């Protein structure tokens, strides 16, 4: 089967770094674009470059939006550390971003490689977005035709029934709700990997030890990332050291779709609620609903099989 082509929009971030490593092995990764999110833009861009450098991957990085469409930038140092990649000792950077024009890169790449009309089943081009959706929204505003040229947009964001930055809102959507509304109303084929799905893919101490045991530099880097990440999650949310691998789920939804069960739903973004701003409002009424589904919402992931894919991928960096 032909590997999908992917543009990866991210805000590294521990789980973003792992998403990069997965996408590079299981797709034709055309480029990485960065956005402010888990850390400020300068740091997320550096972290994407560091991850690619450590893995020996020749993939261009284009820096994008430094702030959301409307509000001030907000970050997550409590989970990802001040650098955005707390844990491992990061090497001196020997490469630079290809540009600071992520939106232009997205538009040009999709128009050059995407299909018209709608998908090319022989070589699908997916946009995988695992940070705040600012870059994606700006690209769709500039070029609405992208929605039909892409096979789809796989999003790590939102959730069914609960949040993590507020009672109702997940971080990536909460960080730029207006951008999320642009994307969710664009008419593109969407897959949403929200908290209800990603919290099924927990990384635990035994998993970190297994990854460290692979012995290659990329696996060691990943184990150091995950050990820090699991401790941070334990302090912020849980009682034991484990953390959900959010962003890899969106990559797997494209590269290994059989691992994830989705259902069509109508989803809107709450922009006004005092307690619910940034919430993904998912219509769960089933046959009673008169709203047309606009998103494939993820509900289940085959956790053990996904972990096998991750470990095999990390082992391949030592081959």
UniProtKB/TrEMBL annotation:
UniProt-listed GO biological process terms: purine nucleoside catabolic process
One Pfam family linked to the record: IU_nuc_hydro
Annotated Gene Ontology cellular component terms: cytosol
Entry's EC annotation: 3.2.2.8
Keywords, ordered alphabetically: Glycosidase, Hydrolase
Inosine/uridine-preferring nucleoside hydrolase domain boundaries: 6-306
InterPro entries: I/U_nuclsd_hydro_CS, Inosine/uridine_hydrolase_dom, IUNH, Ribo_hydro-like
Enzyme class: hydrolase
Entry GO MF terms: purine nucleosidase activity; uridine nucleosidase activity
PANTHER family: INOSINE-URIDINE PREFERRING NUCLEOSIDE HYDROLASE, URIDINE NUCLEOSIDASE
Protein's recorded name: Ribosylpyrimidine nucleosidase
